[in-house]
């Protein structure tokens, strides 16, 4: 168990490190002065001054930062963040999440590297008497590519987005050709040998050859499926289908990764499962960090664009200290949420749930 905990902690350090490195690398490339690049939070266990930047490793592995001159206020330094063009600041702010997304994609790409083929969801067959088996509807071998604009990556996606008695738009692939079914409604019914109601078709998989192009496509599709899962979880949180107590922070995630490794029957399976979960966490962080919430990179991007729009219209420069106040307040609230999630994770682990 302890081995998997160490692996999970190290992964978290890599996750934070590559995020901050994204900010750091783009800031340096854009000529912005970086005062400190830190991996971890709290007291420093290693420091090294190189040129204008202090590089440090701190004792708490959950966190880190890339401190740039003029990040939250005015500065007379022409190389300060606040004095750079909008496109440069935008690139710096997006770079952290972009690196996390890239990390998730690379992990999936590596996981899929030994695959003998890549599954594509398709209609395998129909129940006897199904009214939707026809040239104008569906045929065996059809791949359902989209339902109402939602990309279908697995058979589970079909069940999730398919609605009864509701007109829906379908994009299918038949014999290599894309076909559309607009405002097509289906109804469940009973079939011989079953008391339950079904739409009447059975789903299965076709398999693409393990070429590099298919490998790349399958890796991208899986990464985008992670993105959708994150958005769906956020929607559940906003609508009340999920509770704040369901959230997990670094402690909960480390525990989850350790349990994932411990429950595997072989070390190879443990490595695969942890890597898969790690890829999802990397993509999760990328999406969450770009939400338009003060103190997050997404919040900074939002304020950057709003400020640019106001300054373009009014021809007056806004004082950046007010944005700093908003982000400061947002950081306090965010730290409060993190503390709550941290304690909730501890209680959940102690209770064995």
Give the key terms.
Pdz3 Domain; two-stranded antiparallel ribbon; 8 helices; globular
Draw up the topology in text.
Elements: H1 2-29, E1 34-50, E2 53-68, H2 86-111, E3 118-126, E4 143-147, E5 150-151, H3 155-161, E6 168-174, E7 177-184, E8 189-190, E9 197-198, E10 201-208, H4 212-239, H5 250-263, H6 267-289, H7 297-314, H8 320-350
Antiparallel strand pairs: 1-2, 3-10, 4-5, 4-6, 6-7, 8-9
Helix pairs in contact: 1-2, 1-5, 2-4, 2-6, 2-7, 4-6, 5-6, 5-8
Would you give an account of this structure?
With 353 residues, this protein is of the alpha+beta class. The protein folds into 2 domains: 2-111 and 270-350, no CATH class; 118-208, PDZ domain (Pdz3 Domain), CATH 2.30.42. 50% of the residues lie in helices and 22% in strands. It has helices at 2-29, 86-111, 155-161, 212-239, 250-263, 267-289, 297-314, 320-350; strands at residues 34-50, 53-68, 118-126, 143-147, 150-151, 168-174, 177-184, 189-190, 197-198, 201-208. It has a 4-stranded antiparallel β-sheet, with helices on one face. It has a two-stranded antiparallel sheet with strand order 1-2. Strands 3-10 form a two-stranded antiparallel sheet. Helix 2 crosses helix 4 (212-239), helix 2 (86-111) runs antiparallel to helix 7 and helix 4 packs across helix 6. The longest helix has 31 residues, at 320-350.
